[in-house]
Amino acid sequence: MRLGILKEIIQMALSSIKTHKLRSFLTLLGIMIGVMTVIGMVAIIQGLNRSVIGELESIGSDLIFVSKHEPIQVGHRSEEERQRKDLTFEDAMAIEKECPLVKAVAVDLVADLWEDIPIKYQNIKSHDALILGMNETFPQVISVYLPEEGRFLIESDITHSTKVCVLGSELNETLFPHTYALGKDIRIGPEKFTVVGILEKRGSIFGQSQDNFVGIPITT
Fold first, then answer.
1. What is the rounded CA–CA span in Å between residue 2 and residue 12?
2. Of 156, 152, 127, whose CA–CA distance to 141 is shortest?
3. 135 and 210 inside one domain
4. Are residues 112 and 204 in the same domain?
5. Residue 83, domain member (yes or no)
6. How many other CB atoms are found less than 10 A from the CB of residue 170?
7. Mind giving me the DSSP string for 101-119?
8. What is the pLDDT of residues 153-184, one digit of tens each?
9. Model's pTM, two decimal places?
10. What count of other Cβ atoms lies within 10 Å of the Cβ of residue 55?
11. 16 lies in some domain
């Protein structure tokens, strides 16, 4: 009985398809486009996931980032968020001292982007490079901050607020397209800093260059 009903339904469906060929074709085409769209979206999402995981693993998967505010902010900050105190270098040193399981603490302070502080060598200027105050443990904590030439900042640079700096590879190419940078003096705003290191090229993360910056002692 059921088999007969099923056979009749199939025959009716085939008859309908033959009678309305164009409509049937358009229906099938719509289904195919829908399925292909879903498959494409899944592939894109999986690709993005792999990209994000790869970017994070390149930085280091055993890191904890601590900041005053969330890295990505949606909407206006609350009153509580606006009243949060700035994190200090002393806070970082306290974490390193009081947390025995923490191997090392790297600290950075980004100069206010709205100040538009020029970075200059002779008559060549850069206005879009980041200025980072850093401590000496960055290469130990985030292994991508490795010097290709010269050296990174050292403990005495931090202790004595030495006027030295390291350049990301992109900023190095901007300021010194035809000149060897090590030992040269650049100006960050009105202050003079001696270049002691050029860092390895890191590429971009989420479309943002990681090489267009200058690193100076955070205590400077």
1. 15
2. 152
3. yes
4. yes
5. no
6. 20
7. T------EEEPPGGG---E
8. 999 999 999 999 999 999 999 999 988 999 99
9. 0.63
10. 14
11. yes
